[in-house]
Amino acid sequence: MRILFVASECFPLIKTGGLADVVGALPLALKAAGCDVRVILPGYPAVLAGLTGTTVVDTRATLFGGPAQLLLGETRDGLEIYAIDAPHLYQRSGSPYLGPDGRDWPDNPRRYAALGRMAADIGISGLDGWKPDIVHCHDWQAGLTPAYIAAAGGDVPATLFTIHNIAFQGLCSLSTEGGFGLPPSFFMPAGLEYYGQISFLKAGLVFSSHLSTVSPTYARELRTGEFGMGLEGVLTERASVLTGILNGIDLDVWNPETDPHLAQTYSAAKITQKAANKKQVQALMGLAPDPNAPLFCVISRLTAQKGLDLLVAQLADLVWRGGQLALIGSGDPSMERAFTDAARQFAGRIGVLIGYDEAASHVLQGGADAILVPSRFEPCGLTQLYGLRYGTIPIVARTGGLTDTVIDANEAALRTGSATGVQFSPVTSSGLGFAIERAFDLYADRKAWRRLQKRAMAQPVGWEASAAQYVDLYETLATPGRR
C-alpha cells in the first residue's frame, strides 16, 4: 500500500506544534506495518537543510509565481520526503506561517495552494514509477489537494483528509489567484465557498473520499455548534465518512528510560529516580529547590483555546497550597504578560520561559509531578500523552481527545487501579481550581501517587493500535466501489 502524506510540517525537520509530531511519527509506524509512505512538504530552509541524499525528481518553469523543483530526500529516521524547492514561496526565516510582524504571510493561500497542486500531481500521475494508492492530507494547508484530485477525475487515488484543529480554516478571497486553477463549479456553497470566501479546510472536507480526526470524542464534537466552528453542517452531512482515530506518540523520542535531555533516566519500576529530574526543572526554571513541593508544568501555546487564562486566576492558590509551576509557551501577549508578572510576584515558586524549546519540554515532562492541560477544546492533545509516558500526571479538561486518553482518578477508578490522571468539567477557572485541589490531595498520599504514576506509565500511548486502524481504513478506501 503506497501512501502520500501531505502536510505543512514534520518533526524533526520543521515543527510549530503537534501536527509535526504526528506527521513525523505516524508514517514510521505505518512503514513498520508494511506501508510504503512518503511525505510532501514545503521546502522551508529548515526542511532543505535537514534532508540527506536529495535528488531532483521534477522541475517546474513556474509554480504560482516562480520556478520550482521537487526534491526527494530522507530524514535521519529514514522517512522519504518530497520537498518543494520554490524560493519565492518558502525561502523565509522564522515561522513557516508568520512574517516578522507576527501576522500571517499575505501570500499563504498561494504558498499552500502550491503544496496542494504538487501533491495532487503526484497522486494523479505518479512520479518515477511511484504512485500512491491513498493521498492522506493533513489540516487546511493541504486542503486544496483533494479538490485538485477531484477536478482531474478518472483513475485517481482515494483521498483521506484529517482534521487536526478545525479552528484554523485557511480563508482567503474568492478572487485569490484566479481560483487557483480549479473549476468554477467548485466555488459554490456546496463546494469550497464559505460565506463569500474560499476555505481550504472546507475544500478538504467536501472533496475528500473520507474524513478523519484525531480522537473519537472530537469526531462527535465537531458535529455540534459548540465545536464545529461553523462547519458542523458539512460534517454532519458527511458523518458516514468521518472517523475518529486517536493520535499516538513516538515511543523512541519520548522515552524516560533513554531520554538524553534528562538528568536521570527512569522507568515505572524505578519511579523514585524521577526526583533527580525535579531538581533539574527547578534549577532550569529558577524555582526553589524544594523536593516536597508538588511541581506542576505547562507546555503549550498561550491561547484561549488552550485555556491558560483559566490558570492565571488559580496561581495564587496553587502557590499558597505549597505548589510550584514551570511553564513553557508563547502566544497571546496579554497572557504572556500575566504569567511573567506572576513569575516576578511569586519568585521561586513560578518559573516561565516564553517561547518553545524542545529539549526543555523533555526536561519538564521528566521532572514535573503533574502537567496541566485545561483546553476549552482539544482535538487530541499530545502533551498529556507525553505526561502519561513520563509518569507526569495529566490534569485535563473533559473535552475531545483529553477525554479519550486520561482516566479520571475518581473513587471507582482509584479502587480498581485504573486511574491515570484528573479530568475536570465544566471548563472554567473554578473547575480547574477544584482539579488542582484534587491533585494536591492525591499527592499528599505518596504511595497512592506512586501507584497513579505507574498506572499512567502503563497506558498504551504509541502508534501501533492507531496505525493498524489507519491501515484498515486505507485498505477500505483503496478497494474499488468502497470509498
Textual characterization of the structure:
With 483 residues, the chain is of the alpha/beta class. The chain has two domains: 2-248 and 464-478, Glycogen Phosphorylase B (Rossmann fold, 3-Layer(aba) Sandwich), CATH 3.40.50; 268-457, 3-Layer(aba) Sandwich (Rossmann fold), CATH 3.40.50.2000. The protein is 37% helix and 19% strand. The protein contains 19 helices and 18 strands. The chain has helices at 18-32, 45-50, 87-90, 108-125, 144-152, 200-207, 216-221, 232-237, 275-284, 308-312, 315-320, 333-345, 358-367, 383-390, 400-405, 411-416, 429-444, 446-457, 464-478, and strands spanning 2-6, 36-42, 52-60, 68-74, 80-85, 134-138, 158-163, 171-173, 193-194, 197-199, 210-213, 242-244, 295-302, 324-331, 350-354, 370-373, 393-397, 422-424. Strands 3-4-5-2-1-6-7-11-12 form a nine-stranded mixed β-sheet, sandwiched between helices. A six-stranded parallel β-sheet has the order 15-14-13-16-17-18, sandwiched between helices. Helix 1 (18-32) links the parallel strand 1 and strand 2 (36-42). The longest helix has 18 residues, at 108-125. The protein is globular.
